Amino acid sequence: MNVRGFSDYKVLANKAFLSESEALAARLKVSLIEEKDLGAFSEETDFLLRYTEQGLVLENLAAKKVNPVIVNFEVGAANHRRLFGGGKGQLIAKAVGFNKTKSDIHICDCTAGLGGDAFVLASLGASLTLIERHPVVFELLNDGLERARCSDSFEVAEIARRISLQTGNAIEILTAKISCNEKYDVVYLDPMFPERKKSASVKKEMQFFHSLVGNDEDSDQLLELALQAALYRVVVKRPKIAPFLASVKPNTQQLGRSSRYDIYSLKKLPD
């Protein structure tokens, strides 16, 4: 994985959230700056993290017209998918096997990102273990999940409580899981695909996120381990035109307009 150097990040010392700001800067081992000093850092800082009343926000100072990144499961796309996404008829739901079983499913999402897919799966009743290795993305997602668990919406809070998040390298975590002869029901992968720089369909916010986390260059190895760590199936989300991970052909697929889900079936899901 190629990521931006941490010298590109700063944490703003918001007086209303000073203790949280100090703790975040310490965890990430980056500089904590005052609002009055922000101008002096603008030329050497691309990314600014700040706590607000809405939650932890990541801003791209080098691209003022790009919206800040914040994880909020009660508004926007996440909320729309929960309410109007199609329930268990969604492609992702079919891919992990909701249409094949009535049993509870424990899914490990090895490439959690900002948690959009995980929240959809949890809203359908699955239990989720999320793994995110980029420290800044982990902080954004963890902040969003903590706020969701304290939501005034009972439904949102219950969904968030079905999700556990850990930071670390998924390859190392899966290797440890395999060595203990333990398995997840389903392993879900959505590796970052090389950016389509000339495509007008790539939103500025997605370009921003891509520049933050880089490509997942070890995704082939991750698939090999996922096939050992899953009990019933491995599901890989890919752009529709992308090659198979590790050149391994799936048993079946769920095809969408711009993306697809490659399904590697290992054993029949319980009824």
Nutshell version of this structure?
The protein has helices at 18-28, 38-41, 76-84, 91-96, 116-123, 135-149, 154-161, 170-179, 204-213, 219-229, and strands spanning 9-12, 31-33, 47-52, 55-60, 106-109, 127-132, 163-167, 184-189, 230-239, 252-255, 259-265.
Question: Per DSSP, what share of the residues sits in E-state strands of 2 or more residues?
Answer: 15-25%
What low-confidence regions span 5 or more consecutive residues with pLDDT below 50? none
> Which value, in Å, is the CA radius of gyration?
19 Å
**Which bin fits the share of residues in helices?**
25-40%
CATH superfamily of the largest domain: Vaccinia Virus protein VP39
Overall SS class: alpha/beta
Total domain modules:
2
List how many beta strands DSSP finds.
11
Largest sheet, described in full? 7 strands, mixed
Sheet with most strands: strand arrangement: 7-6-5-8-9-11-10
The CATH top-level class label of the largest domain: Alpha Beta
Quick check: average pLDDT?
89
Count helical runs. Answer: 10
The separation of the N and C termini measures 38 Å
Looking at the overall shape, the CATH architecture of the largest domain is 3-Layer(aba) Sandwich
Backbone shape: globular
- Topology as H/E string? EHEHEEHHEHEHHEHEHHEEE
